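ligand=S-adenosylmethionine
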Amino acid sequence: MTTSSTVSSRFHNFTATDWIDGEIRHRRKLYKKLFFIDIHLTSPSNDKVQVLFRCDDDSMTTVDHQDCLRLARPGHHVRLHVGPPTDPNEGQDRTFKVWQCTTLPEITKPYDDPKPFIADPPLVNKTRETIKQWDGQEKPKKDMTCKYWLNQRQCHRLETCPFQHPTGPDFEKAREAWVQERLEIRKIITLDPNDPHTDKKPHALRALIFAQWIHTFLIPRLRHCKGNVLDIAGGKGDVSMFLCHAFGIPSTVVEPNLRKQPNYWLTRLRRLMEKHINGINDDDDDDAPRMAQPWPYPDIHPTFMPTLLDDAFIQHHPDLLHRTDLLIGLHADQATEPIVDTALRLGKPFAVVPCCVFGRENLHRQLATTGGPVLTTQDLIQFLCEKETGGYGGKIETAYLDFEGKNQVVYWIPSSHSL
Ligand SMILES: C[S@@+](CC[C@H](N)C(=O)[O-])C[C@H]1O[C@@H](n2cnc3c(N)ncnc32)[C@H](O)[C@@H]1O
């Protein structure tokens, strides 16, 4: 197989010349578009070789490159179709053979031991005493805590591991500090400069905040709206519970995997409403015992339909869809695009909060503006906003909701439904 390289003259064309079989003993990601694996060959020589996978030379697509990284897990036995690296400098002055691969590894024997695989040191063993941090600073390993120790309370390299292994109260302190640091870093690296919310509410409040936004922002902008909502991929039904009981908006949950709804879950939802909508705090230093507040609309209950949103659903429930004023989906996984397409087809308003993209399953998706693939949540949001609204008019818009995590809502009010 030959792939043409148009990226730069630094790269040659790729040609696969050999098949190799062996166990992945180490994997190292150099950056987003390049990673290496060290393979212990099963035949003929029992040698170790290095195989690189890259997409910065156009020898493979970004999606395939990501899939290769996912499949090439240390411990797996694999079969690879390899060839000389497209960058002739790779492999020079090495004591081992360096190959490149541009196709998905075939897993011949997966690593299925419940114990974690202990990787070999890398073939290129430039042992460093520091680790580059997210902000570019180098931090000495001896000042950091071993992440295996923190998460699994064991380290298979205890004797030689350069990181700290605290015990007793120091362990608890180190773990707390590590969790806090990761949360902070996550906040910084996922910071969206367009998001107006700086001190956001916890992710656990997402259903309440979405329901409140529907109640205070979206529904008042809809004409002839009786408030019948179709909450697709609603999971346990949190959003619909808030819509019905807290805001008096009737809602139907379309969800194939119905969950149990224990009493503690109902109590938790009611407490969240009390605390975040009514401002009553359970933790208040209150001498008098306080009765739990009832729901404002205790008699409006969500309806649950244990089914998928698909073509059959649309065909079998024309009356329900006719009565529906608004289709919604919070972190609706594979249902996100079908919700948007169904709403556009019916000319009904929608509001979805996209999260997972399922890029591999949807390779047909392409951004109209750039022609690029849809791989990230931001791509998916753009892709949804680029959809045609047909003869219904109106503009597909976005807004940010005030909670941590994927918090951008994509919504549409067709002209005929707009106040
Ligand atoms: C990440 S969960 C989100 C649940 C809930 N909305 C929440 O935010 O807690 C995604 C849900 O989508 C459901 N789902 C996936 N595809 C669907 C489809 N085509 N129709 C209805 N539900 C679907 C799954 O069963 C799953 O419960």
